[in-house]
Design brief:
This protein is α/β, with parallel strands linked by helices. It has one domain (31-285): Chloramphenicol Acetyltransferase, CATH 3.30.559.10. 33% of the residues lie in helices and 17% in strands. It is built from seven helices and seven strands, in the order αβααββααβββααβ. A seven-stranded mixed beta sheet has the order 3-2-4-5-6-1-7, sandwiched between helices. Strand 5 and strand 6 (254-261) form a beta hairpin. The protein is globular, with a radius of gyration of 20 Å. It comes from Cucurbita maxima (Pumpkin).
Length: 291
């Protein structure tokens, strides 16, 4: 925690040193341990990678591609599922749509349909009761199994995948985030985290994918004295079998960074249904903003 504390203090000092005085005073609370004690740890986190995990560290056989979804295309996808699924979120729709294409690519590249699980990372700041302070810093996140498929299961319909993700999320929110001050909460957290971590760390014959969403984070509002950013992205998704979602600057579109095995990516980027809803950026375009 020392390095994080020093970094955040330096960041706050920079924010306060603006000559024009227009930037707000930043007073981050670096005391997450008082809310979530270390004994709640279940043995790791899904961003760490590791031997045998579904999200192994990047190697030369892993390729990342950036997908750009315009707001109109996301609305079209929502229209395709809204009769079957009530009020799904943009993140649920795109996650399911990309996950469906990923599973199709897996089958095309390997000729088999292994059992799969999708782990969804979630920011619990606004979901726990009582609410956490807005100024609390750190990775206040957890994860849950958003969707699973059985071995050799035929490809699921998009509406079914979205429905599964929405149901899993609602069940998670009913049980996990409530009253984290209660003594029983720590036992619930440990059990939940252990079950999800076992899926991630010891997948066996199962293929495990991870999705994280940075949508609705106010990154385009950041101004350190040089104006607000024109475009924000990451150079590549850091791990194999990773899906990362970010808002486009206009607030309607979403960019997705997808990281897969080279052979699976070759099949993924030829998926015509996928390409009909997004623009796929090549490696040469990875650091070129949306036109």
């Amino acid at each position: 925690m020392a390095s994080l504390t020093n970094f955040m203090n330096d960041w706050a000092s920079i924010s306060r040193s603006s000559d024009d005085g227009d930037l707000p005073v930043v007073s981050p609370e670096i005391n997450g341990v008082s809310y979530f004690p270390p004994e709640l740890d279940a043995g790791g986190d899904p961003s760490g990678g590791g031997h045998g995990s579904g999200t192994e560290r990047r190697d030369e056989n892993v390729i990342s591609k950036r997908l750009v979804f315009e707001g109109s295309k996301i609305a079209a996808l929502k229209a395709m599922v809204c009769e079957e699924v009530e009020n799904p979120t943009r993140v649920q729709i795109l996650t399911a749509f990309i996950y469906k294409a990923v599973l199709s690519a897996k089958y095309s590249a390997t000729g088999s349909r292994p059992a799969t699980s999708l782990l969804q990372l979630i920011n619990v700041r606004r979901r726990v009761e009582p609410p956490l302070p807005e100024t609390l810093t750190g990775n206040i996140i957890t994860f849950f199994i958003a969707s699973s498929t059985a071995a050799e299961q035929r490809e699921m319909e998009l509406c079914n995948m979205v429905g599964d993700m929405k149901t899993s999320f609602e069940e998670f929110c009913k049980t996990f985030p409530r009253n984290y001050r209660d003594e029983a909460w720590s036992s619930l957290h440990k059990l939940h985290a252990k079950e999800s971590m076992e899926t991630w760390r010891n997948p066996g014959e199962r293929s495990v994918y991870t999705c994280t969403s940075w949508c609705r984070f106010p990154m385009y509002e950041a101004d350190f004295g040089w104006g607000k950013p024109e475009w924000i992205t990451v150079p590549e998704a850091p791990w194999k079998n990773m899906i990362l979602l970010m808002d486009a600057k206009n607030g309607d579109g979403i960019e997705a960074m997808v990281s897969l095995d080279k052979e699976e990516m070759a099949a993924f980027e030829q998926n015509q249904e996928l390409l009909s809803f997004c623009e796929l950026k090549t490696a040469a375009q990875m650091l070129s903003p949306i036109a």
